[in-house]
Amino acid sequence: MRVLILAVGQHISDWAQDAVRGYLGRFPRSWRVELKEIRTEPRAGQTPARLMQLEGSRILEALEEDDYVVVLDEHGKDFTTTEFARSLNEWMSEASRVVFVIGGPDGLAPEVKEKARRLMRLSAMTMPHALARVFLAEQLYRVWSIGAGHPYHRA
Ligand SMILES: C[S@@+](CC[C@H](N)C(=O)[O-])C[C@H]1O[C@@H](n2cnc3c(N)ncnc32)[C@H](O)[C@@H]1O
């Protein structure tokens, strides 16, 4: 199983970095779950649209042709954890890699959203991008635990 979290921003707070590393470090070798950070520009003097365009082209460069791209977006579809587990298994069976894209402080460029096979919402509330990474990493670990029959997940 290959999963990539492609996240805008290279200087997130230590607590979030530690939490994401903690979850990613728990997966067995059969699940390769990685985080790749997309470099941001200094925000001073740039419009949000320009920043999203620059970040968007870096995101598109990091994608492979047959990736199954899921964009995290507060206007996307809601999933229960069980639905997410079922969907992730389907997506994994359709592509060699599932890529979750998390935007930066300004969100994501339309070109990136157009690449998405799914727009997924983690909550009806807007959250900071660092928290979205932690939330997603935990849910991926939970999905692994459901499939593995590991007691981490107790419904
Ligand atoms: C601070 S938010 C950007 C908010 C921005 N107004 C927008 O339109 O996307 C940064 C990123 O975190 C992710 N994010 C924030 N809240 C989310 C939510 N409730 N569900 C899914 N992803 C979320 C999205 O990938 C978003 O691009």
What do these coordinates show?
The chain has 155 residues and is α/β, with parallel strands linked by helices. It has one domain (2-148): 3-Layer(aba) Sandwich (Alpha/beta knot). It has five helices and five strands, in the order βαβαβαβαβα. It has helices spanning 14-24, 48-62, 81-94, 110-115, 129-148; strands at residues 2-8, 32-38, 68-78, 98-102, 118-121. The chain has a five-stranded parallel sheet with strand order 2-1-4-3-5. Strand 1, helix 1 and strand 2 form a beta-alpha-beta unit. The two termini are 24 Å apart.
SSE blueprint and pairings:
Layout: E1 2-8, H1 14-24, E2 32-38, H2 48-62, E3 68-78, H3 81-94, E4 98-102, H4 110-115, E5 118-121, H5 129-148
Parallel strand pairs: 1-2, 1-4, 3-4, 3-5
This protein binds S-adenosylmethionine (SAM).
Subcellular location: Cytoplasm
Keywords: Cytoplasm, Methyltransferase, rRNA processing, S-adenosyl-L-methionine, Transferase
Binding site for S-adenosyl-L-methionine: 72, 103, 122-127
What are the salient characteristics of this protein?
155 residues; alpha/beta; Alpha/beta knot; five-stranded parallel β-sheet; globular; binds S-adenosylmethionine
